[in-house]
Automatic annotation (TrEMBL):
Annotated PANTHER family: BETA-LACTAMASE-RELATED, BETA-LACTAMASE-RELATED DOMAIN-CONTAINING PROTEIN
Residue span, Beta-lactamase-related domain: 85-296
Region (Disordered): 24-43
Assigned keywords, A-Z: Signal
Keyword Signal in annotation: yes
Gene3D superfamilies per record: DD-peptidase/beta-lactamase superfamily (3.40.710.10)
Signal peptide bounds: 1-23
Extent of Low complexity compositional bias: 34-43
Entry protein name: CubicO group peptidase, beta-lactamase class C family
Pfam families referenced in this protein's UniProt entry, alphabetically: Beta-lactamase
Database matches in PROSITE patterns: PROKAR_LIPOPROTEIN (PS51257)
Length: 373
């Protein structure tokens, strides 16, 4: 069954300046009769400094025992599928960092729906700080009349429903990005069906802003962006609130996730119960979906713009414990705890334009496996 196609969000803006990679240390070959020096693989996690953002330790493929002969095939595939930036991080260190065409390391790119991960974590932080409870009705923070439904139906929708795509709001409307009340109509009772409906998700930003009485960008910057050395900004594009940053900033957020909300001893999100709920199946209708996170290794999955359920794992070629942020035009943030690995891909659509997961994921992981195995 083919994935349903959706219309695209196109936005190219520059926001802040990031950084370029450090040179990679070399390993000298021993003289005749002396074995070559062996560089040990680091076992501790490295956190790139937040005050010196141009610094980032590297790790060679040779040290890791990766197959460097397969890298050219990986680059060929990426370049021929409209990639702008590609990074592989192992144990916090850069192993591969490649930019294509005119795109540079300090250029900013839209995350599109991969940015949903940012909102999910920020929601957990706001709950941890006592500003909201995800089990409360959304109307507690948006007021009555944020939908086009009778009040008794509207009050059944909770913040958790927004996080899990189970609001029951009508996804057959002309524009599922629309956040105006007239676009938000009853279709199903909450918690009875999963559908990738962008409008209710986007309103989470207003929930957080109203609950904290802070500008959304300012609260995000204080709680996540600045403490881990990211740069970037959420910008309004039509109804959507889209995050733009460098590829390295996306990689930093990936490292934060692999360390379950902790950055080099600083707790960004301390609530482990929330983090675990966010990164595991959040409901029974789409096992491959947490709190706005995509999950691999489940027995079935559903996709954006579709009512169908598909058997098997979301990305069969990827590790089962992979969690991900997946955005329109193949923006990819892969996080693999078992490998302590973060992979970032930014660029244009590989072929058809999918809202999140696409066939590109599985093709890309086949080539990644050839390198890392």
């Amino acid at each position: 069954m083919k994935f349903s196609q959706y219309f695209s969000l196109i936005a190219l803006l520059s926001v802040f300046v990031s950084c370029s990679s450090d040179s990679e240390p070399s390993t000298e070959t021993g003289k005749s009769g002396t074995p070559p020096a062996v560089t040990p693989v680091p076992t501790e996690t490295y956190f790139p400094p937040i005050s010196r953002t141009n610094e980032w330790e590297t790790l060679s493929m040779e040290t890791l025992g990766w197959n460097e002969d397969e890298v050219s095939n990986l680059y060929f595939f990426l370049e021929n599928n409209n990639t702008d930036a590609f990074i592989i991080i192992k144990d916090g260190r850069i192993v591969i960092e490649k930019y294509f065409g005119d795109f540079k390391s300090d250029d900013n790119h839209a995350w599109n729906s991969a940015g949903k991960n940012l909102t999910a974590m920020l929601t957990g932080i706001a709950q941890e700080e006592g500003f909201l409870n995800i089990l409360e009705p959304t109307s507690t923070y948006l007021g009555e009349g944020w939908t086009n439904m009778p009040l008794n139906q509207e009050q059944n929708i909770t913040i958790k429903n927004q996080l899990t795509m189970t609001t029951g709001l009508d996804y057959t409307v002309e524009d599922i990005f629309c956040t105006d009340p007239e676009c938000l109509n009853f279709l199903n009772d909450p918690n009875t069906f999963w559908y990738y409906h962008n409008g209710p998700y986007t309103l989470l930003d207003d929930v957080i802003a109203n609950a904290t009485e802070r500008d959304f960008n300012a609260y995000f910057s204080e709680k996540i962006k600045e403490p881990i050395g990211m740069q970037g900004l959420f910008l309004k594009i039509g109804y959507n609130n889209v995050f733009f940053s460098t590829a390295r900033s996306m990689a930093r957020f990936g490292i934060l996730n692999l360390n379950q909300g902790n950055w080099d001893g600083t707790s960004i999100l301390s609530d482990k119960e929330y983090f675990n709920a966010m990164t595991n199946s959040s409901q029974n209708y789409n096992l491959a979906y947490g709190y706005l996170y995509w999950l691999n290794g489940k027995s079935s999955f559903r996709l954006p713009s579709s009512e169908d359920e598909f058997s098997g794992s979301l990305i069969p070629n990827a590790p089962d414990d992979l969690i991900a942020g997946l955005g329109l035009n193949d923006q990819k943030l892969y996080m693999v705890p078992s490998l302590d690995m973060v992979i970032v891909r930014m660029g244009g659509a590989s072929n058809e334009e999918f809202l999140g997961p696409s066939s590109f994921d599985n093709e890309l992981w086949e080539l990644i496996n050839a390198v890392i195995e």
